[in-house]
Design brief:
Layout (H helix, E strand, L loop, with lengths): L8 E5 L3 H9 L6 E7 L2 E7 L1 H5 L8 H7 L4 E4 L2 H15 L5 E4 L3 E5 L10 H14 L5 E5 L2 H10 L2 E2 L5 H5 L11 H9 L5 H6 L2 H8 L1 H11 L16 E10 L2 H22 L1 E12 L4 E12 L2 H4 L4 H5 L7 E13 L12 H16 L5 E5 L9 E5 L18 E8 L9 E4 L2 E14 L15 E8 L4 E6 L6 E6 L2
Length: about 500
Amino acid sequence: MFFGTQRRIVSLWFPRLASDRVLRQRPVDGPFALTLNQKNTNRIYCLNTAAIKQGLHRGMSYADARAFCPILKSREADVDQDHRFLRLLGRWATRYCPWVGLEEDGLVMDITGAAHLLGGEALMLADMQARLMRAGLSACIGCADTRGAAWALAHYGEGIAPPGDMLSALTSLPVAALRIEEPIAVALQRLGLRSVGDLVQAARAPLNRRFGPSLLRRLDQALGAQPEEISPLSISVQYAVRMTVPEPIGLLSDVMAGTERLLFQLCAKLKTQGMGARKLCLTLRRVDQGQQQVELRLARPLRDPQRILPLFERGLTEIDAGFGIDQLRLEATQVETLPVQQLNHVSDGGRDRLDDLVTRLGTRIGLENIHQFIAADSHIPERSFMVAPAAYSDPAGPWISTKPRPICLFPPEAIAATGLRPPKQFRWRRMSLTTGRATGPERIAPEWWLEDDNWRSGLRDYWRVETRQGRRLWLFYTPQNPGWFVQGEFA
């Protein structure tokens, strides 16, 4: 809200948004229409000016349209793409003001305090119209103090309403300009209330009893008697940069130089937003309009161009430049929060070098195939660690254990022995071993709240056994179901 400044709203209406979007990419001469299947009937969804001159209109069946106009060219409509295109236009409209909202088939903009930057409202609206025409889009624009009045002018009387006098700008417009439902507009016309001026002069109490409060609310909103807010469009930050070269390039050194320039621009944008890139996509457009992409997935979020650039080299060596590359586009397709870290003379960058190594290996075999061990909170040997992808997990910290654990752990292997203490001689893996020294026992109880078939024998008494043959084994004895097993080997 700008205190002391009259609020001004601009409504942008795109009467042929869907067809204009398609014809911008693939122009068609003559009548053209987009069709949409509605209630098992293929109907006209949007059409161009040439089709309208042939007597076609929105909502008529496609079969009737072909009967009226045999030369009609058509294509199936894509409502999702139309909505996405409208959101892109919303991003474009922020060049005029920061407060832009979406409507069903247009945009609404709060230009309060911004029109003077372009020389006034008339010059601002003229600039909008000129830019949209160059882009191949037909648009109707209205400007007023209220959202309802601006919408009415855009749809029924394109122009600029004088500040503070909405009634004079709306009095001659039909009642449908108040954004009311069609049955209510038809009923008002049957009563002789055809224009907004007629509706203003009519008694309000009978109108409220017959049509409900929605009619008078729309009227008051258009005239400024009731406020109406604008929900701004939530625009996500796009981490993408592009560069067009004056002459086609094809050498690896030239492509790397262009990629370096894009990286510096992209990383500066990431740093401003406090983000780091996890996945980068470099798109190279050739002069024959063909495109090739190099995707780079990073082990950790990064925004250092000097560290990222060498990681692109392997992918760029496999690119077929054809007759030359004339455009490079770099986009961070996946980003994560990367706060600023304090640097000191103690850190040696060892973690950074490890992350770069994981990234280089990941470009060859896939990041998900490089694993690391992570300590887990469990006293059961088999559950004291987890295996996770190194690129998507952080070490939980140093391994903390009050008891020594073997460097190699494997499923229990039974040996022929009896007694409560480790046998003096036993055979394991076709080797005859003699016990030199045994340390223990360390009793480990099963986790009763978890089902585990390997621990159904109950308690285990673990021993560290050093054999005379040089083997240092981890044995355990099961008192409840007597038996000896080897489960690990120390270094």
